[in-house]
Design a protein that fits this description.
306 residues, alpha+beta, Beta-Lactamase, 6-stranded antiparallel beta sheet, elongated
């Protein structure tokens, strides 16, 4: 059986989450115990070490002047986030790039920290990079407060964690599948349903479908993300191996097939599916040989996921 498929010690302690600066009175003498300033070369070495440490975790600095609503972004941060300096000059330039679905939590988490209710600000969020792609970032910061406790600045670091999130999601998806397959008795349909659900989450796609070969054609075996109309349409279709559809093309080539835009693909021709499904970008993959081992069968079956 085969298958195919389409994240100084002070007497008085500062309040949680705050950093309070101190100034030397003019003319005051330095205490014998107070260390001298670092020599320029040592300060430079410290700065370099700090920069390298941040680079090692794919993050860099920002300094937000809350009072004047201006911000400093370290030059390396633009490269990490894939955003040009001219695209991000103000605090609003950054917040406008945050995904609408993450805006409410971002505003709440930030407000709670600025009020002094949390020791630091930290969250993972989706943002739009300079090319318009949605990616994942981690942003953290801590408020610098005045004598009255009001937040005057927030200093912190931010960086891109898209690759790390992808790995985490892949591990979660694999764990979900292995959990199902490790049961002493399971139905193949349960495995297929878990696969399409995990694939939809992992690829951040609108839907995922698995097709099974029956008598030389391919029929829908499992799906996640289709509404009733789309599901009924796909359920009743028999798809032949051919370049005119994603399933058929994947069956022919037995490799990963990516169609960036079905409307611009010269070989793709399935107008009914385009109208009903309204799919534009699609990815197909064959995984039948590995899944076939999970079930004994004398039939010649191949599964494709899209």
């Amino acid at each position: 059986m085969d298958r195919a498929a389409v994240r100084t010690k002070n007497k008085a302690k500062p309040s949680a989450g705050s950093v309070k600066g101190t100034k030397r009175l003019k003319g005051a003498k330095r205490s014998k115990r107070e260390p001298c300033s670092e020599p320029p070369e040592d300060a430079l070495a410290s700065a370099e070490r700090y920069a390298l440490a941040l680079e090692s975790i794919n993050e860099n600095l920002y300094d937000w002047d809350i009072v004047n609503d201006t911000v400093y972004f370290a030059p390396g941060l633009f490269k990490i986030l894939g955003i040009k300096p001219e695209q991000m000059r103000t605090p609003k330039d950054w917040t406008d790039r945050i995904h609408p679905g993450d805006q409410p939590l971002f505003k709440y988490t930030l407000a709670e920290h600025l009020k002094g209710n949390t020791p630091r600000f930290s969250m993972e969020l989706r943002y739009r990079d300079g090319a318009g792609n949605w990616r994942w970032a981690r942003q953290a910061g801590i408020a610098v407060r005045g004598p009255d406790g009001r937040a005057l600045r927030m200093v912190g670091a931010a960086g891109d964690i898209t690759e790390a999130k992808s790995i985490d999601d892949a591990m979660t998806a694999s764990a979900d599948l292995l959990k199902v397959m490790s049961r002493s008795t399971f139905e193949l349909q349960t495995v297929l349903d878990t696969l399409v659900t995990s694939a939809t989450r992992l690829c951040d796609s609108d839907a995922a479908l698995i097709f099974r070969r029956e008598n030389g054609h391919y029929r829908l075996a499992a799906q996640h993300g289709l509404n009733r109309e789309k599901h009924d349409f796909m359920r009743d279709r028999e798809i032949s191996p051919a370049r005119t559809t994603l399933v058929g093309r994947t069956a022919l080539e037995r490799r990963i097939v990516h169609i960036p835009d079905v409307a611009a693909d010269p070989d793709y021709h399935w107008p009914e599916a385009s109208t009903t499904g309204n799919f534009r970008a699609m990815l197909g993959e064959s995984f039948g040989d590995s899944l076939a081992d999970t079930r004994a069968s004398s039939g010649d079956e191949r599964y494709f996921a899209v």
